[in-house]
Each structure stands twice: as structure tokens, then as C-alpha cells.
């Protein structure tokens, strides 16, 4: 008989089957939305950092010159001047065959005639993005017809948009967390009203407000953890599916919006964070309500 009897009967004292199921599904939905929003924020923030580190410190020098000899001399002079310069990590001329491959979709094979003058391009990787203006002055002094493009300049709108998405996702996480807190407050107050007679009996038997609050916070913690685990699992499965679809696109900018192992760990721990938040909110609410009744 002792094996069949519940070891802690007080854990079931304030249970309400229908309300408990509703609370769990609400928490599942909340955590599903939170994990998706958090994943968007983490991925876009990582993409922003990748743009800053990989592209913001890169400059492309373009030399358009009809005379092939003058063009090659300008390229050689610029490469010699930039190599070893402070703030420059690497200098490399873009392969002409690679340029031809990039132009082929636009000009076609017929447009890539051997007599067609092709611009020369030099990729410059910087250790300090602030060195770009000095490099531009140097290049213009050696080849006035040269054009210097800082990747950070033309990628600034893309970077700003991705950063805005990251901030928006963070705001959504805070919004859903606030909504979850309000749901817990309503559930705790509703439980107090529903079990008012039971709570009065517990008080007459010598139970303190803290002991009664533990009953509520334990119930809400269990519902939040179980529902949150379900919602998080569904969200993670959806993210894996979405990641496989992004990989098929093959686009570099979109492909940069990915989650690192640490990001997956943060998403998996979200149910624990929400459970702690819900437990604290339930305890504070119940103790405050019981204190006002005395």
C-alpha cells in the first residue's frame, strides 16, 4: 500500500487537471515563440560580427586602363607599395580567369574577347579598418584612374538591417518573457481564488504562507518546465529543418546566418530560465496576496 500511495500528497493538493493541462500548453507555446525569436537574434548577431570581421576590413582596388602595359605597371606599383604597409595584412591581385568567370553571365562567351580590355582588381585585407582612407590616398597617388571600394561602405545597409533584426529579436524575447510572467501571475491568482477554502483549512492546521506558496510555485514550476521542454523541442526541430533549407540556397550572406554550438546550448537552457522566472513570480504573487488577506 505504501508503494501505491503518493510519497508527497501535498504536491497534488492544489492540482487541477484541466487548468494544469492548459498551463502546460500555454508555456509550450510561449517557449516555442521564445526559442524562435532567440535563435533569430543569436544567428543575426553572429552574422553581424562575421560581416564586421571578414568584410569590414577589406578593400578592393579597381584599375580600368585600356593600355594593358600601363595597367600592369600600375598594378605592380600598387602591390609593392601596399605590401608591408602598416595596417595591411595581405595584398593579392584577383586572377584574370576568375574575373572572366564572373563576367561571363553578363557578357556571354562572345563578350569575353581577348582584345576586350578587362579591369584589374586587387584585394587588400586590413588589420585596421581605419587605415582605408590612407590606402585610398596612396593608391590615387600611384594611379589616379584607380577606384577604391571599401566593403564596409557598401555593406553598411546590409549590416544595419541584420543588426536591426537582432535587436528586434531581442525585444521579442523580452516581450514574450514579460507575457509569460503575466500568465504566471494570473494563474497564481486564479489558483488562490479556486482553492481559497483549502488554503484556509491549511492555515487552521498550522501551515504558514511560505508553505502554501511552495505548493503553488512547485505546481507552476512543473507545468512551466514540462510545457517549456515540449515547446523548446518543437522549436529546435523546426530550426534544424530551417537550417537545412538555408544550406541548400548556397548564398554566402544568408549562409552566414547560422547558429554556433554555444547558441544551441543557450536555446536548450531557455526552459530552465523560464522555469526559474515563473517560480519566483508565483512565489512573490502568492505571498503578496496572502499577506493582504491577513
TrEMBL record:
Primary residence: membrane
Keyword hit for Membrane: yes
Chain ranges of the ABC3 transporter permease C-terminal domain: 172-283
Keywords for this protein: Cell membrane, Membrane, Transmembrane, Transmembrane helix
Membrane topology label: Multi-pass membrane protein
Transmembrane portions of the chain: 161-188, 224-244, 264-290
Subcellular location per the Swiss-Prot or TrEMBL entry: Cell membrane
Cited PANTHER family: CELL DIVISION PROTEIN FTSX
Name the record gives this protein: Permease
